[in-house]
C-alpha cells in the first residue's frame, strides 16, 4: 500500500525567532527545494531557465511564485493561475465588493489610474432608497401651481390625455431603465452610467450633458416656483417693481438671491440637504392628503369661497368684499367697493364703465362640490390668446365696444397671461412626471439595486400617475371652470386654487408647495454638479476635464459654479411657463435614449444581455422612444430642434476629439451586426463597375527599429483615398510568431501611429513568416474579409535590387507581380517614393502624365482623377499620351480618345505620340549584352557573400588598372575579379578585352557577339529604350508619370532580365507610378 508523506521544512536556531511550524499547518515543499542548498555547496550549476519540455516542474526563478500551488490538486493549471484564478478565489473577491463588482472596479481603476477606496455606507431598501426619492422628485411645483390651470384650460378630457401620455412615456422608460439596471450591477452614476455604457461614449456624453442641462434648468424652474409662491401668497408686499402682481424683473432679482443662497447651502455640505429632504417630503405628502380630505369634505359641506362674475367675466376679488353694485346699510342704499373701482366717484350719478353698467354681478361658489354636476361644464377645454378674459360661457353677458375707459378697468378682470394651446400645456406639464431617475441615481447606496430599482421606480410611477389622474378628475368635478382657469387664484382672494380645495386651510398647500420647491431645487443643485463631475472624470469630453476636480472630500466645486451659472440663465427668463418646456425637451431626449439603449440591446441579442427584470420587450422600448420623440415636437418643435442640434454637436465633438473608450456598448454591437450584414450582402452579387473603387493593400517595409521605412507611401495612400475604399497597411517580419510576437505588436503599433500621423482611415496588420516571400503571398491571398477584400496592391520600387547582396529582393518583387496578376488584383509600384509630396504640401502647377500604352481596365484613367480630388494634386492638370504605330491614323486616334474621355467625364489634354519602326540601335544591343552577361555570371559563378562584399573594391581596381594588367589577371583565372557593374565606357573596354583574351570567354562559356544574343531580349530592350526616350522627352518635368507596367515573362528563366527592362523604361524620370490592372473594367461611360 503506498504511503503519502509530506516533507516539512524546519528552521535552524539561527534562522529567526519563529518556532518550527507543525506539519499540519505548513505548506508542502518540493524535494528540489530541500536539496537546493546542497547543489550550491557542491558548485552544481542550476539551469535558471524553465525547460519547455517539462512545463510542470518549477524552475528556481518560479519556485517562490508557485510555492503556494505545490502539493495542490490543481497542479495541472498552476502556470495559468495569474491570468485565470481559481473559482474559489474569484468568488471570495466578489463576495467582498461594496458598489462595484471586481471586473467593473478594475476597469474603472485602469481608466483613470486611481485606486478607489471602498467606503461602507448604510444600505437602503426599496422603499427608502427608491420609492420615496422618486415620489419626492415627481410630485412638485407643477402639481401645486399649474395642474388646476391645465385642467381648466384643456378640460378634463384634454388633461386626461396630457397626463396619460406623459405617464405612459415615463412608465415605458422605467421598464427600459429597469431592464438595463438589472443587467449587471449599476455603479454610482445612475442614468448617465446606464446610457453611456449601453450606447457608447458619444451617445453617453451627448445624452449625459443633455440630462445635466435638464437637471440644471429644473433647478431654475423650482427656484422660480419658490419666488412665485413667495411673492403671490406669502409676502406680496415684497414686490419691488410696482403693481399688485410679480413682474419678470421681480422673479429675476429674488430668483438670483435664492439661487445664491441655495448654492451656499449645497457648497457647505450635502448632509444638510439630505437632512431636510425628509421634512420636505413629509409636507408634500401632507399637502396631497389635505387635498383628498378637502374633496371628501365638499360632499358634506363645500368651502366658503365664492367667485364674483360681472356679466360672464371673472373679477379679481382681492379689493372688495361684496359682489354687488350697491348694498343696504342701516336702511340706506350705499355703493360698494366695486362701484368705486368701475366708476369715477362714489356718487350715484358718477360716470361708470359701460360694461359695468350694462351687466349684472353674479356670485357663485368657487367649489360647488363633488356632487354638484360641474364636471359636465369642465369636460372640454377653453383655449384663448393672451389678454382674453376668463369667462363663464353659460352666463348671460352684454358685450360693449372697447373704449379707453373700459381698457383702464381691464386690470380688474382675470385674464390669460399667455396664449394657451394644447401643445404648450404638454410642455408645461411634462416636468411634473420627471424624476424617475432618482432611484437609479442612488444605485450605489442600495442594498440590492437590481431588485429595488425596477420595483421602486415602477411603483412610484404608478402611485404618482394615480395621484395625477385622480386630481384631474377631482379638480374638474369639484371646482368651477372660471376658477380653474385662474392660474394664480386672483378670483378667490389670491389663494392657490388647489389650496381652497384642501382641508383644513389653504396654508397647508402654500407651505407644502413652498417646501416641495425648496427640496426639489436643492436636489437639482446637488445632483447636477455630480452628474457633470462624472462626465468630466470619464474623460470623454476634453474641455470638461477641469470640472472633474473638487474639494478634498470630493465635492464638485467647479461643477457647482458652472451649474449655478447655467441655472441663472433659466432664472433670467423670468417665467416658470417659459422654462418648463426647455427642461421637458432635455429630459425627453434622455428618456428617448434610455429606450433606444434597451431596444438596441434587446434586438442585438448580445450574450451579455441577461436582465433579471423580465417584463420588457423591444416593442415597448420602441413605443416609448417614439412617444418621447413625438412629445418633444408636440411640446415645442423649435426647442426640439435646438436640443437635437446641441446633442448632435456634442456627439460629433466627442467622436472627433474625445478619448477612445471601449465600454462594450450597444452601438458597438450594432456596428458589428451592421458590418456582418453588409459583408454578407456584398458576397451575394458581383461588384458592378460603377461601384468599383481602389481597395488598397499597402506593403510597407520596416527598418531595424520596426518603424515605417517609407512614410511617404502612407501620404500617397491618403491622397489616393478620394475613392473612399478600404485600406489595409501591412508588413512582414521574418521568423516565428512565438519568438517575434512582441515585435509584431510593436510593428503594428508603429503602423497605426504612422497612419494616424497621416490621418489615414484603415486597418493595419503585421504577419510573421519564415521568409518575406511567403508573408507577402499570405497577405495577398488572405487580407480583408468577404466583400471587403483588397483589389489593388501598392508598394515601393525596390531601389537597390542591383546592389543587393542576394537576389531575394528581385525575386520577391517579381513573385508579387505574378501573384497579384493571378489573383486578378491591380498592382501600383511607386518609384522614388521618398520624393513624392507630403499631405501638407500643395503643388502649385504641373501635370500628371498618363502614358496609356495598353488598356487593362481603365485604372490608368481613374487614378489621376482620384489624385486630383486631394488638395496636394488639385492644381495639377491631367495629360494623356498614347502611342501610334505606323499603320495607325494619329488624327483619328486623338479624336476618338477625346470623345472617350468626354464620355468618361474626365478633363485631360490628349496627345498621340508616333513611334515609327526603326532599326535596333547599337546602344540597345549593348544594353542587352550587359544584361545577359550579368545574368550568366550570376548563374555560373554563384558568388559568395564575401566575394560580393568585395565587388566595389574590384570595380575600382578594374577602372584604375591598365588594359594589359587586366588581361594578365584574367588569364590567371581569378574568380573574384568578376565585373558586376556596367557602364557604356566600361562595356566597350570589356568587349575589347574579351575579344583579345579568349581565356576568360572560354571559362565563362560566353558569346558576347550581338548576333548570338537572345532576340526576344533584344526586342524587349529595344521597346524599353525607345519608349523611355519618348517619355523622358515629353514628361521629364511633370509632377507624376503613370506608366503601364509590363508583366514578367511566363518562363521564369527570364526573371533576371525583367527588372532591367523596367529600370530602362523608368530611367531619367523622378516620380513614376507603374500601374498594372487587375483584369477587369474599373471605369465606365454609363451612368
TrEMBL record:
It is found in: Cell membrane. Coiled coil: none annotated. This is Solute carrier family 12 member 7. Its main location: membrane. It comes from the Eukaryota. One of its GO terms (biological process) is potassium ion import across plasma membrane. Residues 1-33 are annotated as: Disordered. Belongs to the SLC12A transporter family. K/Cl co-transporter subfamily. The keyword ATP-binding does not apply. It is a multi-pass membrane protein. The chain crosses the membrane at residues 124-145, 157-180, 192-214, 221-241, 253-270, 277-295, 418-440, 452-477, 497-522, 558-576, 582-604, 616-640. Keywords: Cell membrane, Chloride, Glycoprotein, Ion transport, Membrane, Phosphoprotein, Potassium, Potassium transport, Symport, Transmembrane, Transmembrane helix, Transport. One of its GO terms (cellular component) is plasma membrane. Pfam families: AA_permease, SLC12. It catalyses: K(+)(in) + chloride(in) = K(+)(out) + chloride(out). GO terms for molecular function: potassium:chloride symporter activity. Residues 711-827, 829-1087 form the SLC12A transporter C-terminal domain. Residues 130-295, 411-697 form the Amino acid permease/ SLC12A domain.
